[in-house]
Specification:
The complex is a heterodimer of chains A (352) and B (436). Chain A is mainly α and 352 residues long. Chain A has a single domain, classed as ABC transporter involved in vitamin B12 uptake, BtuC. Chain A is 75% helix and 0% strand. The radius of gyration of chain A is 21 Å and the shape is globular. The two termini of chain A are 28 Å apart. The relative contact order of chain A is 0.15. The model of chain B has no long low-confidence stretch (mean pLDDT 89). In chain B, the strands form five sheets. A five-stranded mixed sheet of chain B has the order 2-1-3-5-4. By secondary structure, chain B is an alpha/beta fold. The chains are: A mainly alpha (352), B alpha/beta (436).
Chain lengths: 352, 436
């Protein structure tokens, strides 16, 4: 909130009247920060706000650790912090790559799984679980097979010279459903007593086991990828106009599209490898973003980064504190997100 | 569908005649038996050799009795029962073949023909369904992979024609199972799970009875074959004991006595632990967290594993959860703060997975070095299988090393000898059970 107030003062001083839409936009961008701090205070194990703050700051100011139990320090620093950060990164990734894919494919009903990255990752994880894999193996397989699926779709589309985007879409759907069948095969041959529940739970998404070990690759890929999407966001507007118009404006639309696909795929594969298949966010958060800030990608990309991060933070807080048992994220995103979106639609009965 | 039993009957008749003729030259042996047992023994002997046996009053090659005190000292196991209350003790190897015959389906058939055993048994399975099963049962299939071990436990594994084998998927489990039963590769070659079975394959196998889980997906299709199906659901000690006794009833007197012996053994383990721990208050009982294929996947209160922990004198911290395996987060584990963590025998989680993790160091089980991986031989000792008696022994030994005098490796040797008829390699089982 302070950012809003300061900006208002600055703009007021400059004699520029700030409209409500700008205020909402700025507020939205600062929301993840507020939610990250709030999320760190929440958990099944009760730790006071003061102690959480002291535990968070103690690596910098060691004096603050006095009086804290080792349990409190471990929970805040090693359990809550990596989990909250990964929720924010994954939410931001899924939503922003959803916007990017919807922009370059000129289709509001797709997300970054259009080319099969999530389906491939799902198969990789199921295979690793079937082999009795460790967390590391599951994440590695998920990431690798996610990239493999998209590579196959891309190579497949190169077999045809005309209408590359349509062929790429078709190939993505084919490869995605192929890996979907392979995942079903893994579930079919899995031991129904032990391995099958593990695969099912992974396919519903969850951040139960996240520690600092899972974070570096996720953070590097999503931060770099998010920065790339942020930088090219205005070009997405031109791409949405169509290839001919983009070429007229001096852009090579195919290079940019390929760049965005590679970037979004790496981000999504990293997100899915850590969080499992968390459906719904990539498809619907972009629409929520459009309702709030409008269809201009210049604002839509930052807004969807912030909105996706905030949404998954809220969902994950519910998932980890509602019951002693973790509630899979894939269940909550739909159950909570759909009523929210319908509410937003009612308030803004405007065109897209 | 009446042709199936008739066909197998004709087959069995030809088979037993062939055996009868081939063994006509066997060395004779003498039999000592009480007057009331003699007609049944005569029926068996006549069916196998075509002649009446030679009864003597002392120093016989074969003794028929119901008096366990005549068993040689150091005898481990259950003696072969040809009638519910009479068994054989062999004193000469000439009689061994006869004893094998007496407890085989053919011997059972001879006793049925002579009116000493019923021609069919009627049981009520664990869903409350009444099932009539013609005797003897020569061929059984066990798509319920837990029931496979019940069949081994009652000493009727020779009648298995196909089944699922829990815990025998990995190479170690498979090799051990093949050492116990050389027919294992042949019996386990079919795809049989709760979700999946090939009905035509089952028809081809011509089983006399099918042991299935009550939660099997294909029960309606199998019912079309007209083969008796016995349904099981064993997620508690009481249900496990009941299912063992049901399996015993299906295979005749020798199996029924084995089943009762297992129930006695199992109850005995419980009472031996209770005896040493009943003075403990609830707060003194170790609080145990049992985790599955993932360190954060824990048991619910509805699962058999909760009963194993209770039987061993502990208490499950996750008993309030319901359903099947539950995924939890580390904050919940910190709230429970278990004294002991037990990892199931299967899956990739090792004690190092937990003790080597920085996050788990705040849990008291980790601080006190009380994180254990449950052993198993073939069937996992945490599942509702006969072997779970060993799981209780092992856990009791871990929870109360000073109080409970049970020894996992010694008990395992006795258990496998008695219920699998198998001599466990002593060194291997000591390694499996771990140092006491």
């Amino acid at each position: 909130m302070w950012r809003v107030i300061i900006l208002r003062r600055v703009r007021a001083a400059a004699g520029v009247r700030m409209n409500v839409r700008d205020a909402i936009y700025i507020g939205l961008l600062s929301l993840p920060l507020v939610l990250i701090i709030a999320s760190l205070m929440i958990g099944l194990y009760t730790i006071s706000v003061e102690n959480v703050t002291r535990a968070l700051l103690s690596p910098v100011f060691p004096d603050l650790a006095a009086g804290l139990t080792q349990t409190e320090i471990t929970l805040v620093q090693r359990i809550r912090l990596p989990r909250v950060l990964s929720a924010a990164l994954i939410g931001a990734t899924l939503a922003s790559t959803g916007v990017a894919f919807q922009g370059i494919f000129k289709n509001p009903l797709v997300d970054s799984n259009l080319l099969g990255v999530t389906s491939g990752a799902g198969f990789g994880a199921a295979l690793a679980l079937l082999l009795g894999g460790t967390t590391f193996l599951v994440q590695g397989f998920a990431f690798g097979f996610g990239l493999l699926a998209v590579s196959l779709a891309y190579l497949g589309s190169r077999l045809y010279s005309s209408a590359p985007m349509i062929v790429l879409t078709l190939m993505g759907i084919l490869i995605g459903s192929f890996f979907g069948s392979l995942t079903s095969l893994m579930k079919y041959v899995a031991d129904p007593l032990n391995t099958l529940p593990a695969i099912t739970f992974w396919l519903l998404g969850g951040l139960t086991g996240v520690t600092w070990d899972s974070l570096p690759i996720l953070a590097v890929l999503t931060v770099l990828g998010g920065a790339f999407l942020w930088l090219v966001r205005w070009r997405l507007n031109i791409l949405s106009l169509g290839d001919a118009e983009a070429a007229t404006l001096g852009m090579n639309p195919n290079h940019l599209k390929l760049g965005i696909i590679v970037c979004a795929t790496l981000m999504t594969a990293a997100a899915v490898a850590v969080g499992g298949v968390i459906g719904w966010i990539g498809l619907v958060i972009p629409h929520a973003g459009r309702i709030i800030v409008g269809p201009d990608h210049k604002r839509l990309i930052p807004a969807s980064l912030a909105l996706g991060a905030s949404f998954l933070l809220v969902i994950d807080n519910i998932s980890r504190t509602l019951f002693p048992t973790e509630v899979p994220l894939g269940i909550l995103t739909g159950l909570i997100g759909v009523p929210l979106l319908i509410g937003l639609l009612r308030r803004n009965r405007t065109g897209w | 569908m009446k042709w199936i039993p008739r066909f197998s009957l004709a087959f069995a008749l030809i088979f037993s005649l062939t055996i009868g003729m081939a063994s006509a030259q066997d060395a004779p042996f003498t039999v000592q038996a009480a007057e009331e047992l003699r007609p049944a023994i005569t029926a068996l002997h006549t069916a196998l050799y075509g002649t009446a046996p030679t009864f003597v009053d002392a120093d016989a090659d074969l003794l028929a009795t119901n008096d366990r005190t005549v068993l040689p000292s150091g005898f481990i196991g259950v003696p072969p029962h040809f009638l519910p209350n009479a068994f054989f003790v062999t004193r000469s190897e000439n009689a061994e073949k006869f004893v094998d015959f007496a407890v085989s389906p053919d011997g059972q058939q001879a006793l049925i023909d002579a009116g000493f055993l019923p021609a069919s048994v009627t049981i009520v399975d664990q869903t409350g369904k009444t099932v009539e099963i013609p005797q003897p049962v020569r061929r059984v299939i066990t798509p319920y992979s837990i029931a496979t071990y019940l069949v081994y436990g009652v000493g009727a594994a020779d009648r298995l024609v196909a089944g699922g084998y829990l815990g025998a998927r990995d190479p170690i489990g498979a090799a051990r199972m093949e050492a116990i039963d050389p027919r294992f590769p042949e019996l386990s070659q079919y795809v049989m799970t709760q979700r999946e079975i090939n009905v035509e394959e089952v028809a081809k196998l011509m089983p006399d009875v099918i042991f299935a889980s009550a939660r099997s997906a294909w029960l309606d299709a199998i019912a079309e074959l007209g083969i008796p199906v016995v349904l099981f659901q064993g997620e508690s000690p009481e249900l496990l004991k009941e299912s063992m006794l049901l399996v015993g009833q299906v295979f005749g007197p020798n199996a029924a006595v084995h089943a009762a012996a297992w129930v006695d053994y199992y109850d005995g383990i419980f009472s031996r632990v209770v005896e040493k721990t009943n003075d403990l208050t609830d707060s003194e009982r170790p609080r145990v967290l049992l985790v599955g294929e993932n360190a954060l996947r824990v048991i619910s209160g509805d699962m058999y594993q909760t009963d194993i922990i209770a039987a061993a004198g502990g208490q499950s911290v996750s008993a309030a959860l319901t359903g099947f395996w539950n995924d939890v987060n580390l904050e919940q584990v910190v709230l429970w703060n278990p004294d002991v963590i037990v990892i199931v025998p299967y899956g990739s989680v090792t004690t190092e997975t937990i003790t080597g993790s920085a996050e788990w160091q705040v849990i008291s089980a980790v601080q006190n070095g009380r994180v254990y991986k449950m052993p198993s031989w073939v069937a996992p000792w945490d599942a509702p299988v006969p072997d779970s008696a060993l799981g209780i022994i092992w856990l009791a030994q871990k929870l109360f090393p000073d109080r409970v005098d049970l020894q996992c490796s010694a008990e395992a040797v006795t258990f496998f000898k008695t219920f699998y008829g198998y001599d466990l390699p002593q060194d291997d089982i000591t390694a499996v059970c771990g140092a006491s």
